[in-house]
Design goal:
five-stranded parallel sheet, single chain, glutamine-fructose-6-phosphate transaminase (isomerizing) activity, 14 helices, binds sodium ion, EC 2.6.1.16, aminotransferase, binds uridine-diphosphate-N-acetylglucosamine, binds 6-O-phosphono-beta-D-glucopyranose, alpha/beta
Length: about 375
Amino acid sequence: KKGSYDHFMQKEIHEQPHSLTTTMRGRLKDGGVLLGGLKEHLKTIRRCRRVVFIGCGTSYNAALAARPFVEELTGIPVTMEVASDLLDRQGPIYREDTAVFVSQSGETADTLLALDYALENGALCVGITNTVGSTLSRKTHCGVHINAGCEIGVASTKAYTSQIVAMAMMALAIGSDQISSQGRRNAIISGLTRLPSCVSEVLKLDAEMKELASSLIDSESLLVFGRGYNYATALEGALKVKEVALMHSEGMLAGEMKHGPLALVDENLPIIVIATRDACFSKQQSVIQQLLSRKGRLIVMCSKGDASAVCPNGSCRVIEVPGVADCLQPVINIIPLQLLAYHLTVLRGFDVDQPRNLAKSVTTQ
Ligand code: UD1
Ligand code: BG6
Ligand code: NA
């Protein structure tokens, strides 16, 4: 089943050009988006007061990656809920809400309990899941199967990128009645069609990420700074490193750097800064300058050709990635971090597919 790969996680990382293709298959039509599972409900969703994203772990991070483009393309306010925290707070959910539940397995206990809670409160409940016939798929009013194929590695990789793409198509479908943003939607649709080949290209960084992993093997901690479209990339990259490589890692909002994290910076702590091209680029350039002036040990992820723009004095390690439409860039940017986490795990001698203490599907509270 693993074919020529040593581990399922490795296989699943490398099959993303294919899994993303199957996620989109038959759904991008005549320059528009057709999601069979949502089309009867689009009118209701467009009228809702807010979208509430609910999930756990990597699925929560995928929803966080989707938040900026859902807000932009639909104009509907989006709030984020970790499923267990919504339940702990018994947070308000209303009939006028669209609650979007994101879960690879469709069987995560907290997510399903949050679904029961949202159903009781009368919200329209939408599922984004990889598992046809799962409890989530059955109990939600409607939804989208991401069709990424079976995922076996406990650390989610291909499901993450397919979830983001499914939510991008969902946002395009909800926003499709807005004439003024047709040009923007067309650009994103053409970005989606280019995505599998861009993913193939970024996967060529495999050897470079293995080399980077070998330089980090003895680090105690790894920080990842992101913002805007790539705040979620920072959280998800750090989650991969901690869950499989068993190394402490935190994803952080770069905009919060001065409010605490800056105190940690010295010449030893490795810090990844995500600084690919988008509206936040110049802000990230200034974050890099401030980290360098405190002798930070930086690894900067930037768009192809931007190495000297992000690190003029050449003192950072640079990861150059291909560019796609800004809101889809998280799909590309997570891949080097998946590869890094994978190689770090192998080099540190830990179990890749069955990380210590973790389970693929957490079906109890
Ligand atoms: C469906 C078929 C697909 C077929 C295509 C042809 C299924 C599972 N899918 O795909 O095989 O090729 O039509 O047009 O038979 N749903 C939920 N909650 C979820 C996910 C989905 O309620 O979390 C519902 C949807 O609202 C929909 C149904 O499940 O009613 C199938 O969803 P999906 O597979 O995404 O629909 P299509 O892409 O149209
Ligand atoms: C578990 C898995 O913690 O559940 C994670 O180890 C996953 O990889 C999380 O992200 C949520 O799972 P699901 O199936 O609801 O997406
Ligand atoms: Na359903």
